[in-house]
Amino acid sequence: MAKGVIHHIELYVSNLKRSLDFWGWFLEELGYSSFQKWEGGQSWKMGDTYIVFVQVEERFLDIPYHRCRVGLNHLAFYAESREHVDDMTEKLNHKGVNLLYTEQHPFAGGDDYYAVYFEDPDRIKVELVAP
Question: With the C-alpha atoms ordered 18, 67, 32, 51, is the resulting torsion angle positive or negative?
Answer without folding.
Answer: negative
